[in-house]
Amino acid sequence: MRFIIETYGCQMNVADSELVSSILISAGHSPVTDIDDAQVIIFNTCSVRDHAEQRVLGRIANEKHRKSSNPEIKIGVIGCMAQRMGKRLIEIEPGIDFVVGVDQYQHLPHILEDAESCAEDALQMDKTQVYPNVMPFRQDKNCGFVTVMRGCNNFCSYCIVPYVRGRERSRPVNDIYEEAKSASEAGLHDITLLGQNVNSYQFDGYRFPDLLRKLNNIESLWRLRFVTSHPKDLSDELISVMAECSKVCEHIHLPLQAGDDQLLKKMNRSYGVDHYLGLIDKLRAAIPGIAITTDLMVGFPSETEAQFENTLRVMEAIRFDYAFCFKYSEREGTAAASYEDQVPEEVRLRRLQAMICLQRKITLEKFRGQIGKTVAVYVENFSRRSDDMVSGKTRDFKIAVLSGGADKIGGLSKAKVIDATAGTLICE
Ligand code: SAH
Ligand code: SF4
Ligand code: F3S
């Protein structure tokens, strides 16, 4: 059958869609890029905020008309929302034919044959599942992900991920090495290691810094990155390995969430603001020019105006290169959803806007600070704006555009930054 996967949520879902594609292709099905050609439409979903769930439900409602003109068409839901809601999804949206949870993707070929069979098992969580022996089918030829662990043990009080993804488990170090080696030999020279808490990787005595050291030896690999790091697991050893390994890029994504100790405690983040600031100092001292990006949340239950201001002050002190700013969303079953003092929606929205506005200003200043510098751009594709421009990434995770054509794609270009917006370096 011809299938298409529409992916929502984080990079873990992007990587999982590549796994699922690979599983389906091995079973004889073929991927298509135009939904009009698809006989199977799969939505890989996210549950992290209510908005993410509503969006996907809207998309499914929009696409189910295809089944009335062609009753052969099947619609499936996989990913975190499938895991969270299971059969309830089919009750809400009867257009859905099958729902498969995050640990059962190997059964998808079987489920496609008979949408009814396997229905019970399709939602089982499997705390050891790491999909051994499945080589992802990669859409992007130049840069991509290698999953190193699945699940999360942290139970931040607002977060649904540990419930839908299960407990943390690391993949065998040799599997990761082999996958990274063969992918980079096939042209994937910029690899991002993936895990919900990637720096707590641990397999047979191998810890995350050991893994970086090992992968740094792969000749065909040019750049190595990783997301997402938790501040509680950012050891001095990891910082020195980042500094010492030539391929590990000068960038870290280190979610702060809030710049207030009381809030961080209620969030169950297991660090305080001083610890976080200390990490930033160590990173900047060890890795000159390192870019630091983060996740921040406004409107967590009981957040006062003063606490929110504390977060803004910490943002000003640190000056992140970029911050993903989110408005707290209650997730049924998490600890924070039962806290009494929920912040009114309009207050959440106002704080979010103020936060985004502050970060935009800092990001623009940071990007403009690069003007005049020479950067190495790993060119990934044509620029979205024009056919005689290409775009890529710098080592410190900034999007850069420069003039050029197909011959530049997949290679490194040295370029001078001549202008910048709050998201793109314009180079020559
Ligand atoms: N494991 C990663 C990613 C988690 S989800 C990490 O720990 O950083 C990505 C981001 O979504 C989180 O960092 C957090 O800022 C945000 N997020 C998680 N749950 C949320 C919720 N209930 N409401 C709003 N934002 C949330
Ligand atoms: Fe969620 Fe916290 Fe785990 Fe990240 S570390 S996935 S925020 S529980
Ligand atoms: Fe969303 Fe699941 Fe990722 S809830 S953020 S897709 S792990």
Structure description:
By secondary structure, the protein is of the alpha/beta class. Among the domains are: 2-123, Rossmann fold (3-Layer(aba) Sandwich); 374-427. Helices cover 34% and strands 22% of the residues. The chain contains 14 helices and 20 strands. The protein has helices at 11-26, 50-63, 66-69, 80-85, 88-92, 108-113, 161-165, 173-185, 208-215, 236-244, 261-266, 273-286, 305-318, 345-368, and strands at residues 2-7, 30-31, 40-45, 74-79, 98-100, 143-147, 149-150, 169-170, 190-194, 202-203, 206-207, 223-227, 251-253, 291-298, 322-327, 374-382, 389-393, 399-403, 412-420, 424-427. Helix 13 (305-318) links the parallel strand 14 and strand 15. The longest helix is centred in the last third of the chain and has 24 residues, at 345-368. The model has no long low-confidence stretch (mean pLDDT 96). The structure holds S-adenosyl-L-homocysteine, iron/sulfur cluster and FE3-S4 cluster (F3S). Iron/sulfur cluster binds at residues 152, 154-156, 159, 161-162, 196-197, 230.
